[in-house]
Amino acid sequence: MSEVVNVLIVGVGGQGVVLASNILCEVAVRAGLDVKKSEIHGMSQRGGVVTSHVRFGERVLSPLIMHGRADVVLGFEAAEALRFAHEVRDGGLLLSSTQKIPPPTGPVKKKQKRPRYPQTPLSDAKQVCRGRVVPVEADRIAAELGNPRLTNTILLGALSTGLAIDDALWTDTIRQMVPSKTVELNLAAFARGKEVALSERQPA
Amino acid sequence: MDQTRRYGDGAKSNKLLQFGNEAIAHGAREAGCYFAAAYPGTPSTEILEIFRTFPGIFAKWSPNEKVAVEVGIGSSLTGTRTMVTMKHVGVNVAMDPLMTFTYTGVVGGFVLVAADDPAMHSSQNEQDSRVLAKFMKAPVFDPATSQQAHDFTKLAFDVSERFNTPVMVRETTRIAHAKGLVELGEWAEPVRGERMKRDIERFVMMPNFARPRHPFVEERSLKLLDFSNEWEGNRLELNDRRIGFITAGVATNYIEELMPDASYLRVGLAWPFPVEKARALVEHCDRVLVVEELEPFMEEEAKIAGLPVEGKAYFPRVGEFDLDAVAAGLKKAGLLDETFAMPEPAEVVARPPVLCAGCPHRGIYMALRKINADVYGDIGCYTLAALPPLETMHTCFCMGASIGNAIGAKLTETKPRHPTVAVIGDSTFYHGGITGLLDVVTSRANITVVIVDNSITAMTGGQHHPGTDRDLMGNEAKHVPIEQVVKGLGVEKLIVLDTYDYQNAVDQLRSAVRFEGPAVVIARRPCALFPTKIKPEPYAVIEHACTGCGNCFRIGCPAIFDSGKKTERGLAIATIDADACTGCTLCEQVCKDDAIFPLAELNKKREQEVQV
Predict the structure, then answer these.
(1) A66/B42 CB distance under 8 A
(2) Which CATH superfamily is domain A4-101+121-201 in?
(3) Among A187, B179, B474, B581, fewest CB within 10 Å belongs to which?
(4) For A33, which DSSP code?
(5) What is the interface pTM, i.e. ipTM, of the complex?
(6) Continuous H helices in B260-308
(7) Which among A32, A40, A48 has the least Cβ separation from residue B352?
(8) Closest chain B residue to A130 measured between Cα atoms?
(9) Which residues of A touch B579 (CB under 8 A)?
């Protein structure tokens, strides 16, 4: 069977997971590949967990990625990256924003045994993940670039380093899919995301 | 990976990446479908939202699925090509007209799209609509991809007219909400009939006219069986003699990815089941397994025909399939040596869906909790109030059930402890609550019906309903206010309140439950998201004033967090996310300590202090 690339994008409702997966799918389509994606609508838009499975290659059958077989898990939120860290395949990649969005559960009562929001989700993820864990300070970079909405494109820039797709395809697609006024800013964000991921991935 | 090499080869440039629901809308349009009706329901809703954007057609929401089907039947009777869409549980509501529509048959092609939800991502059960299709004796297509969703829907209109029957296209969540490449075709001229042509013997299903229609149905089923056995969409592929699979729907993708060299019968028309093709597979292979989600529908069809197949002995009947579930089944059947050890996930804090910040339902549930009512609930966003910290909904069955449930409980319980209240949303009230309220009035049931009116169908993404002033085509609509319906049904005690006013809501609810006889409370405020997202000024917590009473945490607002800081007594101090807070003021109303104020006011104060 020909090789299929599996990307699992995870985050919290309202973070732009769906838009990011749409851009990734479009890039893969333009690369002349077969593409499938699957995500859950409905209840998840009420602040719940959002996941989008994206698969592309010569021929793609299942719209869902097998457990523990994701080439890349792209986290928009640190605790969600931890929740899905085990889905990364042996030697794969967990790329995640360091952003933390604790669920609004209020203080945890002592008698309740449910887990608290993790202090260091991405360090914890290293214990679970069978691939490399690469944190991306997407929030900080977006702030530096002057627009918090750029986290999306920064993360896609980081993601692009984990996939063998030509940069020109990414930049062409971004050019066409973001508002025309923000094209240059988005391209800068893409480049920064890429740069951060590459520098983090240099072997120690 | 060498994807870059293939850039620009244009091999798939004529294809679009589409959700199954998009593909179905396009397939219908290409078939010349003119008229479509539906009640929104996940995962079916987008079909009509896309279809309505096409030129030359007409699409509408109906108050419920039964009405949508009846409207669709009328449209078909004029000779118009018609589509009606709904989620799986909607088919239950619509079964009454459907069971008889299969007797009369169609004039214009009639396609019913039923969207099943295995794993119940957004539903109250995971029934299999193929079973209902067989029960009503309508053929049912079961697409495996977006492309098939498109192709089968298009074909379904022809099958409907050729065999004189309503046709079901059954999809599941992983078809409806999964994207795949689709090659679209040309649009046909929409088919719209001139008028209803009278034919009393055919369309008046009273006993003497209905009796001869039953043999017609049975004869048609045999003709459809012949079609199913011949149709190339039921694809027989004879390879490996050791093992063959019969599969349909999204399951096709999983089994084919895991067992690419096996023999296959890929079923596109699940009923009538292509039994002769299944027989050919069984004769070719040593062993045949049926791989299908939910019910052993095809397995039973094959077994009725005496074919030695296996299926649910290995594959689950519960939940949705994925590669892992199918691989586990194959291992159980001795067909795969290794399954892939599922790595251990980390234990991470749960992130359940919650009522939005500024949600108008929050206030009324706080009040219902205060009066400690037994709350008979219903289907909608407000069902989330069953979860902590509100936990103020005690039943939920189906659209409209709240009112009937409350009547039955009130009429029978001998030692009631709490006031009996039914809670139902506005769209749900129009859908299935009106007849229940009629029963409240005529049985003089001493209950309170709270209609939580956010003036939109919110859970499915903000669709209009009979109480709003727009229709699906974007035109101004005649709307029917809930008050008018309630009064028309003879309710004497009617209260309308604003859910952002907590104390008033408590007082009014008390007066309603004390009232001897049926009472209705309309708890009204527009949805925080639809049709327009509200975003007024946020509130903030003054840390030193907060005593950690926890009242604000207990309203379950996603804008209120534990700040991580403690009071002197060690209690958690709250903080408000200024980006999420809409300023509904409910937390401020329950705050014991006067510690919550508008952020702008606090900032102003701070500025003044600095200047002094």
Answers:
(1) no
(2) Pyruvate-ferredoxin oxidoreductase, PFOR, domain III (3.40.920.10)
(3) B474
(4) -
(5) 0.93
(6) 275-284, 297-304
(7) A48
(8) B343
(9) none
